[in-house]
């Protein structure tokens, strides 16, 4: 059965790094009898310039039918400065993809490479051996809750307000995704909330506890308040296996945790939905970084975040963690050989790093 991969390179360095990731996937597929078909479409500013939309209905239909989406980055000064109104999904192709495919589980692995320990913002002895996953809820919470707005209220003053709102099913599905992931790893799940001051946090904690006791007794569940979690992540990051948290807390904690690994250009992510009846799971795989307009078109982009995203695609989208490991080892060997782009202090370009990874595969 041929698996369909939709490649959405987007803007800036997005297409440069997804091209590298696609090369790696094609080579592995050829060697390991994996039938992959790649299709390409515009997204983000490139799509807006061509069609007036940040993603078209035709591309959305392809995204829904695909086995996995490999995404680059969207945005840039030209489009960020457009004064657009309307719901968020009309202003960003990525937001529309996340919303309509219900990609509610955003996975960000935090696993520093040995060769890059010196690049971490933390001491090497704290960083060595760190290997955890942050699961951020991506479709709900305060970024989408209603009511929201800026209004003059009864006291005569202007108020800016947002609503943190999670339904029980929204918490249940992210709980299941996180427990299942922890079960496949070291069986430790840490749920992060603010249940001491937030009602949504109380429901969050209660739901995680109930599902854990009922369905995942083999996973050790712990709870942390988010302020303590932020401290623990920089104090002793080795204590964590899987961390699950809401949209807002996950946004903040994952950017902070990212610096444990040293460089934005290295970080992959996966955004997953609920498995379909046929077992296939909707998923979008993208590096954490943006379109980097300052280095776009110069062949200097670090392709490793996108290549590591392809590794996540192999694991979560195609059920081939064995091939993902081959990719990760090739990346590690490339870095050990000192072949790196300028963001890591190296002198190599995107093409040289890709060539080294391919050589090491
Ligand atoms: P950015 O991640 O694009 O760049 C931040 C800094 O990191 C820049 O100096 C850039 O050169 C460097 N950098 C990023 N990725 C790199 C890589 N692979 N190799 C080497 N250096 C790299 O973030 P910024 O500048 O805030 O945003 C630029 C544009 O990207 C904006 O339009 C923003 O909205 C968009 N963006 C898109 C995201 C997405 O598509 N998921 C995520 C973040 C930003
Ligand atoms: Mg962020």
TrEMBL record:
Its EC number is 1.1.1.85. It is an enzyme of class 1 (oxidoreductase). One of its GO terms (molecular function) is 3-isopropylmalate dehydrogenase activity. The record marks 143, 194 as: Important for catalysis. NAD(+) binds at residues 76-89, 290-302. It is found in: Cytoplasm. Its main location: cytoplasm. Mg(2+) binds at residues 227, 251, 255. Residues 4-357 form the Isopropylmalate dehydrogenase-like domain. SUPFAM superfamilies: Isocitrate/Isopropylmalate dehydrogenase-like. Substrate binds at residues 98, 108, 136, 227. One of its GO terms (biological process) is L-leucine biosynthetic process. Catalyzes the oxidation of 3-carboxy-2-hydroxy-4-methylpentanoate (3-isopropylmalate) to 3-carboxy-4-methyl-2-oxopentanoate. The product decarboxylates to 4-methyl-2 oxopentanoate. Homodimer. This is 3-isopropylmalate dehydrogenase. It comes from Hypericibacter adhaerens. The gene is leuB.
């Amino acid at each position: 059965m041929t698996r369909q991969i939709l490649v959405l390179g987007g803007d800036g360095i997005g297409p440069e790094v997804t091209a590298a990731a696609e090369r790696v996937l094609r080579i592995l597929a050829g060697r390991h009898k994996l039938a992959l078909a790649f299709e390409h479409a515009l997204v983000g500013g490139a799509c807006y310039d061509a069609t007036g939309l940040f993603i078209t209905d035709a591309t959305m239909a392809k995204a829904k039918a695909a086995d996995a989406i490999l995404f680059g980055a969207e945005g840039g000064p030209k489009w960020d400065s457009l004064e657009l109104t309307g719901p968020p999904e009309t202003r960003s192709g990525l937001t529309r993809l996340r919303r309509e495919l219900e990609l509610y589980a955003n996975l960000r692995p935090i696993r520093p490479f040995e060769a890059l320990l010196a690049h971490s913002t933390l001491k090497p002895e704290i960083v060595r051996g760190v290997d955890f996953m942050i699961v951020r809820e991506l479709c709900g919470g305060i970024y989408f809750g209603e009511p929201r707005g800026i209004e003059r209220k009864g006291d005569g003053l202007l108020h800016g307000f947002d609503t943190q709102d999670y339904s029980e099913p929204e918490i249940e599905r992210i709980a299941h995704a996180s427990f299942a992931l922890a079960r496949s790893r070291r069986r430790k799940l840490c749920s992060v909330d603010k249940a001491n001051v937030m009602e949504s946090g109380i429901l969050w904690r209660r739901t995680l506890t109930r599902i854990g006791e009922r369905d995942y007794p083999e996973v050790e569940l712990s709870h942390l308040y988010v302020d303590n979690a932020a401290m623990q992540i920089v104090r002793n990051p080795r204590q964590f296996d899987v961390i699950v948290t809401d949209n807002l807390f996950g946004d903040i904690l994952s950017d902070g945790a990212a610096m444990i690994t040293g460089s934005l250009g290295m970080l992959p992510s996966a955004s997953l939905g609920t498995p379909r009846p046929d077992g296939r799971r909707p998923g979008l795989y993208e590096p954490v970084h943006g379109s980097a307009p300052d280095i776009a078109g110069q062949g200097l982009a670090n392709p490793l975040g996108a290549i590591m995203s392809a590794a996540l695609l192999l694991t979560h989208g195609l059920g081939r963690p064995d091939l993902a490991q081959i990719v990760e080892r090739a990346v590690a060997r490339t870095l050990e050989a000192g072949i790196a782009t300028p963001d890591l202090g190296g002198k190599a370009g995107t093409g040289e790093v890709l060539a080294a990874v391919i050589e090491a595969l």
